[in-house]
């Protein structure tokens, strides 16, 4: 594996290797020294064209725990905001000897483009409405550690699938790992051709779901007539207490964050024992360590 | 003036003939002073006419100029091109169209026929001075806001009506703007997978349907630019069956490439309208053979490197086309030279009102013609292009047929496959 | 022209030899550690792990003492990571009592360049601060590249650099045996 651009880059055995490696990385959290020497002398650049403190910090922690040197290159206050092209930025990073570039970008496919211009590895940390593969990996990791398996799980992904890179990556990865995915939301927000099951009725899906993944719904979608009002959205597709109680006892509730409490998820649900939202953050560091190790830990 | 004798050329009709090019026309009589070109095995076509070329001058001379675009056209077998109006400043006044016309004559490689904008600044709000452009030295007959759709139905109706006074035609870029906000590629499975905002086929089809009804209502000519969907073909087929005076063009790239190309995220494949599905490609090919689509037009759209070597969403749409169009037509239609002459020379010349072009190769006709080697194969190398830009989507592809020579009013613009100047 | 491997492989230790050696090292540990108090065995994967378990088992049999056994995966501490494709990371298991203040005995099958042990010392250091660290190996084949020696050696086997030593154990390979292979079979 040279780059991680899409969840479709991962076959079942590679994805499982990432999850297994992440499980070993996770044990580090309980140790005296929370650092490994593995990537000493390697340089990881976090190239962020969108504000995402959570994702950047997660990658930064992952790289630092593996002893890599980390350079944070954010679009704000840099040459990027002065109109430097992605290609010129890529050549700059190349000259600085970046072994890996972790890129967050508002344009779908920007990591693919970058990978054609740099010699090092490229990790997609979220591109436009395309993909966010490390999020899907940490979600899969969380499901596996909570429920013990992935094959055969029924996973409902609920909300604005159309604009969600998290949903796309999850659909691909979960299919690879043998879970059954159902997309749930208003028809305006569910692309018809993602080759997975679709339902417009959340209540019908809940009793058989092992996992419910709530996606963030941006209020500005209302302006483009994807749905009439926040209230109607919450009533039809929000996960509130009564709905949560229709889930099987073992079922978990996930959210990639940041949440709109009261919109797609009620506070009662977000704070319940079923919620894995805080775990997802912790697992994110382990999974990203695994990804960086598998990309950079061997012969380049 | 040099005389040429093209010996043993095959005509579109299939006959073989010696063609004497003398004093700007196809002549008979003594060829003793003529330079002889062995045309054995070559096909002579009437000079190709492109209804849809972006020459970028004035405004983006870094991407193309009238001269470099003309040279690319001549190398592609063209003797006339219609230069689109979306320059900077926009070709929406007699002054700008005359400038482009004059630059074309000065370059002297093809006849550059300016297209005038329908609306001031392509803004879609009020009509440009269509009459002034029509009576200018450029004698504009085609008007188009290409790049933008004349979306306002009342404005479109008025434009269709108004140009009847000078036998003009409105060439519509059919794209319902509200249905294509932020659109990046064909709406479908590939767009969903790539997370790129979709450009639905219905956004094109709805405008064509509306426009054929408007054209029918006011009894005007309508030309539809770069038809790209199977649904559009059906709308056109029905309109033509009813007798609506509508003509349509298809680009080489829509006849060959599909939306799967976007998988690389290489913006060289970004174009407007976008590359569609294989089913659309098949429907377009069939429509072109049947005549539901009248013309192959290139939509040659040069772009500077920095406008393509970037993120897909930030890249400008468009592809080079002049130097590869004939090869792709041969690839798609086969060596049906009469059909190729019809779709790429006679019909476009008629639509554009270019009286000196699109004539059969016979005595007395203007000597606008091109010689093609049908047996040649070539690998497309972007760095070979005469265009100032490099954004060909065919890089590395092997294409059939090659232009050997082109003559504009009897003067060679291309000889031995190379531009004369 | 490579001959069939069997022709060049030489058996050095039989299953019985291995059993006797494990018994002997278990006795030596008991002797040298004065009864194995506060001692933790750490097997280095792959074959150090079953060896460590056997040693613990023998010590329990001889003296009725339970010596905790851990697993110390050294993959992430190797100094040759960049020489090949990324290796899968195995589990590291630390007994509940931890390593702080304990006498740790690292257990591996073959001692060769010493680089594995160097990596294991680094890995161990990140788990805590043992009182002391010792090393037990089934075979010492020489050719050290680092200043490292074993405290308990099953058998010293002089080898050429071009040769290789393969340890097979029942738990991992179906049967116990140690073989020496000539260079031309590698």
Automatic annotation (TrEMBL), chain A:
UniProt binding sites for carbamoyl phosphate: 54-55, 104, 132, 135, 257-258
The UniProt record lists the keyword Transferase: yes
InterPro entries (alphabetical): Asp/Orn_carbamoyltranf_P-bd, Asp/Orn_carbamoylTrfase, Asp/Orn_carbamoylTrfase_sf, Asp_carbamoyltransf, Asp_carbamoyltransf_Asp/Orn-bd
EC annotation from Swiss-Prot or TrEMBL: 2.1.3.2
Limits of the Aspartate/ornithine carbamoyltransferase Asp/Orn-binding domain: 152-295
Residues of the Aspartate/ornithine carbamoyltransferase carbamoyl-P binding domain: 2-144
Keyword line: Pyrimidine biosynthesis, Transferase
Keyword Protease: no
Entry-linked Pfam families: OTCace, OTCace_N
Catalysis performed (reactions): carbamoyl phosphate + L-aspartate = N-carbamoyl-L-aspartate + phosphate + H(+)
GO molecular function: aspartate carbamoyltransferase activity
Binding site for L-aspartate: 82, 165, 216
Pathway entry: Pyrimidine metabolism; UMP biosynthesis via de novo pathway; (S)-dihydroorotate from bicarbonate: step 2/3
Entry coiled-coil feature ranges: none
HAMAP family found in the cross-reference section: Asp_carb_tr
Record's subunit section: Heterododecamer (2C3:3R2) of six catalytic PyrB chains organized as two trimers (C3), and six regulatory PyrI chains organized as three dimers (R2).
Free-text function comment from the UniProt entry: Catalyzes the condensation of carbamoyl phosphate and aspartate to form carbamoyl aspartate and inorganic phosphate, the committed step in the de novo pyrimidine nucleotide biosynthesis pathway.
Family the entry assigns: Belongs to the aspartate/ornithine carbamoyltransferase superfamily. ATCase family.
Name recorded for this polypeptide: Aspartate carbamoyltransferase
From TrEMBL, chain B:
Reaction(s) this enzyme catalyzes, per UniProt: (S)-dihydroorotate + H2O = N-carbamoyl-L-aspartate + H(+)
Positions bound to substrate: 54-56, 86, 272, 303, 317-318
Zinc as UniProt keyword: yes
Domain of life: Bacteria
Pathway involvement of the protein, from the record: Pyrimidine metabolism; UMP biosynthesis via de novo pathway; (S)-dihydroorotate from bicarbonate: step 3/3
InterPro entries the record matches: DHOase (IPR004722), DHOase/Allantoinase_Hydrolase (IPR050138), DHOase_cat (IPR024403), Dihydroorotase_CS (IPR002195), Metal-dep_hydrolase_composite (IPR011059), Metal_Hydrolase (IPR032466)
Active site: 299
Cofactor note: Binds 2 Zn(2+) ions per subunit.
Alphabetical list of NCBIfam families matching this protein: PRK09357.1-1, pyrC_multi
Function of the protein: Catalyzes the reversible cyclization of carbamoyl aspartate to dihydroorotate.
HAMAP family: PyrC_classI_B (MF_00220_B)
Name of the protein described by the UniProt record: Dihydroorotase
Species per Swiss-Prot/TrEMBL record: Phytohabitans maris
Phylogenetic placement of the source organism: Bacteria, Bacillati, Actinomycetota, Actinomycetes, Micromonosporales
Protein's gene: pyrC
UniProtKB/TrEMBL annotation, chain C:
EC number from the UniProt entry: 2.4.2.9
Keywords of this entry: Glycosyltransferase, Transcription, Transcription regulation, Transferase
GO MF annotations in UniProt: uracil phosphoribosyltransferase activity
Short motif PRPP-binding, span: 104-116
InterPro entries found in the cross-reference section: PRTase-like, PRTase_dom, PyrR, PyrR_bifunctional
Role noted for this protein: Regulates the transcription of the pyrimidine nucleotide (pyr) operon in response to exogenous pyrimidines. Also displays a weak uracil phosphoribosyltransferase activity which is not physiologically significant.
PANTHER family: BIFUNCTIONAL PROTEIN PYRR
HAMAP family in the cross-refs: PyrR
Family: Belongs to the purine/pyrimidine phosphoribosyltransferase family. PyrR subfamily.
Protein name: Bifunctional protein PyrR
Lineage: Bacteria, Bacillati, Actinomycetota, Actinomycetes, Micromonosporales
Gene symbol of the encoding locus: pyrR
């Amino acid at each position: 594996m040279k780059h991680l651009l899409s969840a479709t880059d991962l076959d079942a055995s590679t994805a499982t290797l990432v999850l297994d490696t992440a499980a070993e990385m996770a044990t580090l959290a309980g140790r005296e020294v929370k650092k490994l020497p593995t990537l000493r002398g390697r340089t990881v650049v976090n190239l962020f064209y969108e504000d995402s403190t959570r994702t950047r910090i997660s990658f930064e922690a992952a790289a630092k725990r593996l002893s890599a040197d980390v350079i944070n290159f954010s679009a704000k206050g840099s040459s990027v905001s002065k109109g430097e092209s992605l290609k010129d930025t890529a050549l700059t990073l190349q000259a600085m000897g970046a072994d890996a570039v972790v890129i967050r970008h508002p344009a779908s496919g920007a990591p693919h483009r970058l990978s054609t211009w740099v010699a090092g590895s490229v990790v997609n940390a979220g591109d436009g409405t395309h993909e966010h593969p490390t999020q899907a990996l940490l979600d899969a990791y969380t499901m596996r550690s909570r429920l013990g398996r992935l094959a055969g799980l029924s996973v409902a992904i609920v909300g604005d699938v159309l604009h969600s890179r998290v949903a796309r990556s999850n659909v691909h990865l979960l299919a690879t790992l043998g879970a059954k995915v159902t997309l749930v939301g208003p028809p305006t927000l569910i692309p018809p051709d993602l080759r997975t099951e679709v339902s417009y009725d959340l209540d019908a899906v809940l009793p058989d779901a092992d996992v419910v993944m709530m996606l963030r719904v941006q209020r500005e979608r209302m302006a483009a007539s994807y749905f009439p009002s926040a209230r109607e959205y919450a009533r039809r597709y929000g996960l509130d207490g009564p709905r949560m109680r229709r889930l099987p006892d073992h079922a978990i509730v996930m959210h990639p964050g940041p949440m709109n409490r009261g919109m797609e998820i009620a506070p009662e649900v977000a704070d319940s024992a079923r919620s894995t939202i805080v775990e997802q953050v912790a697992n994110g560091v382990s999974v990203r360590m695994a990804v960086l190790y598998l990309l950079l830990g061997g012969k380049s | 003036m040099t005389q040429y004798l093209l010996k043993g050329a095959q005509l579109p009709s299939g006959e073989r003939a010696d063609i004497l090019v003398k004093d700007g026309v196809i002549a008979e009589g003594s060829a003793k002073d003529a330079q002889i070109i062995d045309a054995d095995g070559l096909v002579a076509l009437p000079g190709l006419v492109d209804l849809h070329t972006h020459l970028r001058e004035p405004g983006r001379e870094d991407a193309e100029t009238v001269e470099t675009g003309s040279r690319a056209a001549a190398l592609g077998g063209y003797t006339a091109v219609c230069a689109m109006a979306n320059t900077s400043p926009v070709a929406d006044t007699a002054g700008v169209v005359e400038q482009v016309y004059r630059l074309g004559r000065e370059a002297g490689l093809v006849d550059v026929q300016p297209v005038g904008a329908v609306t001031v600044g392509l803004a879609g709000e009020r009509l440009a001075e269509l009459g002034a452009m029509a009576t200018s030295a450029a004698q504009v007959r085609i008007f188009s806001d290409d790049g933008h759709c004349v979306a306002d139905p009342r404005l479109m109706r008025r434009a269709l009506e108004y140009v009847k006074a000078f036998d003009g035609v409105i060439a519509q870029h059919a794209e319902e703007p509200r249905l294509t906000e932020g659109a990046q590629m064909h709406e479908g499975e590939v767009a969903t997978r790539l997370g790129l905002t979709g450009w639905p086929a219905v956004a094109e089809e709805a405008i064509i349907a509306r426009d054929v009804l408007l054209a029918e209502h006011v009894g005007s000519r309508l030309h539809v630019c770069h038809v790209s969907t199977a649904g559009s073909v059906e709308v056109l087929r029905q309109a033509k069956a009813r007798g609506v005076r509508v003509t349509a063009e298809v680009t080489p790239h829509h006849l060959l490439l599909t939306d799967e190309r976007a998988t690389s995220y290489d913006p060289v494949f970004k174009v407007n309208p976008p590359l569609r599905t294989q089913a659309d490609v098949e429907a377009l090919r069939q429509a072109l053979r049947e005549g539901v689509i009248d013309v192959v037009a290139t939509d040659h759209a040069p772009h500077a490197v920095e406008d393509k070597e970037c993120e897909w969403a930030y890249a400008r749409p468009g592809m080079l086309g002049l130097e590869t169009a004939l090869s792709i037509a041969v690839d798609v239609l086969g060596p049906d030279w009469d059909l190729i002459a019809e779709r790429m020379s006679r019909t476009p010349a008629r639509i554009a009102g270019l009286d000196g072009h699109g004539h059969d190769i016979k005595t007395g006709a203007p000597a606008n013609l091109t010689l093609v080697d049908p047996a040649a194969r070539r690998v497309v190398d972007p760095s070979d292009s005469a265009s100032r830009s490099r954004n060909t989507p065919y890089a590395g592809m092997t294409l059939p047929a090659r232009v050997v020579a082109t003559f504009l009013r009897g003067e060679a613009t291309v000889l031995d496959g190379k531009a004369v100047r | 022209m490579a001959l069939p491997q069997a022709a060049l492989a030489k058996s050095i230790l039989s299953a019985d030899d291995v059993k006797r050696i494990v018994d002997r090292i278990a006795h030596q540990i008991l002797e040298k550690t004065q009864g194995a108090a506060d001692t933790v065995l750490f097997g280095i994967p792959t074959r150090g792990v079953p060896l460590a378990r056997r040693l613990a088992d023998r010590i329990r049999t001889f003296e009725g003492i339970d010596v905790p056994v851990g697993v110390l995966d050294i993959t992430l501490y190797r100094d040759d990571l960049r020489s090949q494709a990324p290796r899968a990371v195995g589990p590291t298991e630390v007994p509940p009592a931890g390593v702080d203040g304990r006498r740790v005995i690292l257990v591996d099958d073959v001692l060769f360049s010493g680089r594995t042990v160097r990596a294991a010392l680094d890995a161990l250091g990140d788990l805590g601060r043992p009182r002391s660290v010792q090393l037990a190996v089934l075979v010492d084949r020489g050719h050290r590249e680092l200043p490292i020696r074993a405290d308990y050696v099953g058998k010293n086997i002089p080898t050429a650099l071009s040769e290789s030593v393969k340890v097979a154990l029942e738990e991992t390979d179906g049967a116990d045996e140690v073989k020496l292979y000539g260079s031309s079979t590698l």
